[in-house]
Amino acid sequence: MVGNGFLPDVRNCKSILRMLIGGNLVDRAREIYGEMIRVGISPTVVTFNTLLDSFCKEGKVQEALDLLSEMQEKGCMPSDVTYNVLINGLSKVGKMDKAVELVTEMQIHGLAVSSYTYNPLIHGYCIGGNLRNAFKFFNEMISNGVSPTITTYNTLINGLCKKGRLEEARLQFDEILSNNLTPDIISFNSLIYGYCHEKKFEEAFWLFDELRRKHLRPTISTYNTLIYGLCQVGALEEAKRVMHEMVIGGCFPDTLTYTVLINGYCKAGDLIMARKFFDEMVGKGMHPNCYAYTTLIDGEIRLGSLHEAYGLLQKMVQDGFVPDSVAYASLIWGHCQKGELREARELFGEMKRRGLSPSIVTYTVLIHAHAAEGRLYMACRFFFEMIESGLSPDEITYTALINGLCKEGSIDQAYSLFYEMEGKGLSPDKYTYTMLMDENCNMGNWQEAIRLYAEMLGRGLEPDSCTHAVLFKRLRKDHKIHAIRVLVNEVLSSEMVAENFVRSDEWGDSSNHDYRNFLAAILMNKLNLMRVTFRLLASHWFECCSCINI
């Protein structure tokens, strides 16, 4: 047409651009725009808005901003629609400062702000977790005489629920009604999600019944949220009931529904039901996603079925999925549980060659397995490699390595790690203390063992039967009884003197040197052990105490 000397008018160009963009031929639309400029056709504000919208929908906000500048240079004044399109695009990609700047610019030019201006801003701040700014613009919206819409309230309710601020979310829900608006399915779904996330199922199911009383139809999202929440707390029969109700209501389970149920049953150790749902999903023509495969692989491994796990891994690859770091971590854990450390290391190497980053959990599993087998060189190698990769060991990692060092008698290195752990702000747990106490008892360091026990109690850590077994394991049964009696009756007495603990004629056979040292150590830590009585009576050694007349 242009080649024959005919120029289309701007109206025809706008129609062509809209058709191309509507048909997802955005690149071709931009070519047409370039041709318009080349032949001297001046785009209108509508032409620019059409192109700006296409840029923003693709997330190309910088190109959109460049086009805004070009628009202004050509003397075409942006409209409220222009700014609203840009504010929406910028808010979706989290460029909130620039979006706010455009709101100010819009107002300077005397353009009217509306819900189309504020709703994207509120949504952007809520998605980013900045509820303070979201409410700031909500209040500004009202101050400027702009009425909040159902979208405004839904955005705030969703943001509050994701932060666990359910009371405030419920207030916003009630405000919908007071402003003569009608809650929609999104309003209900957001609140149901919030209550399920906080495990408040009574409120969640009340809302579920309420939305149906208001003649709203539950969506797949409604049902999946309830099923997910129930599976998280192990209420699997109730989750199955909701799924059954879902089908009766004409809403059919999707891949997410089945994946959630598979995960729930795997966590409960019920692989029969997990496999049943997996097979049912495949039988209905659905394709399991990567998470469904990984969940079932992990479930099989937890039951020691490595062969079945590898079979699933093969199916996963055949379906076009690349095993992720979670799948590898599960397989590594499975081999470590069977003592197959060479296979675990091979998988770890393969995982890294595939460009997958091992997590703290993966490293800790390997450190624990090698330390437990006395392979301290390899355990330490994984420990330092973990740090070099930018990961920080947690309490479990340190405890695993401390355990290995204690078993090998490397008590000094174990203490170095213990103090390093504390220096990093990590708190040793009762297992860490029990391991150090065990090695000190083995070495006859009763004073240090009791000091550790007192420190553990001082930190509010509850000793268990394993802790007490370690503390008493080298004493003969009659000495265990006497030792507990001292702890029960005598430690609480401020008049007790040291010789009462160490005089052989009072406490019987003095040939057990460990026994005498143990009692002396108790006295030295007496003030820190004031609370030990009731803890011991609730412990593994209650049967010993029961034969003493206390």
Walkthrough of the structure:
It is a single chain. The protein contains 33 helices and no strands. With 550 residues, it is mainly α. The protein is elongated and about 95 Å long.
For this entry, give a set of tags:
550 residues; mainly alpha; 33 helices; 71% helix; disordered N terminus; disordered C terminus
List the helices and strands and how they pair.
Elements: H1 10-22, H2 26-38, H3 45-57, H4 61-73, H5 80-92, H6 96-108, H7 115-127, H8 131-143, H9 150-162, H10 166-178, H11 185-197, H12 201-213, H13 220-232, H14 236-248, H15 255-267, H16 271-283, H17 290-302, H18 306-318, H19 325-337, H20 341-353, H21 360-372, H22 376-388, H23 395-407, H24 411-423, H25 430-442, H26 446-458, H27 465-472, H28 477-490, H29 498-502, H30 504-507, H31 513-524, H32 532-537, H33 542-545
User: Biggest sheet, open or closed, and with what strands and sense?
Assistant: none
Structural class: mainly alpha
Counted by DSSP, the helix tally is 33
Percentage of β-strand residues: under 5%
Mean residue pLDDT: 82
Shape: elongated
What percentage of residues falls in helices of 4 or more residues?
Answer: over 70%
How many β-strands, per DSSP? 0
Distance between the termini: 109 Å
Oligomer: single chain
Radius of gyration: 34 Å
Contiguous low-pLDDT stretches (5 residues minimum) are 1-8, 490-508, 530-550
Keywords: Repeat
PPR repeats: 9-43, 44-78, 79-113, 114-148, 149-183, 184-218, 219-253, 254-288, 289-323, 324-358, 359-393, 394-428, 429-463
Family: Belongs to the PPR family. P subfamily.
Pfam family, one: PPR_2
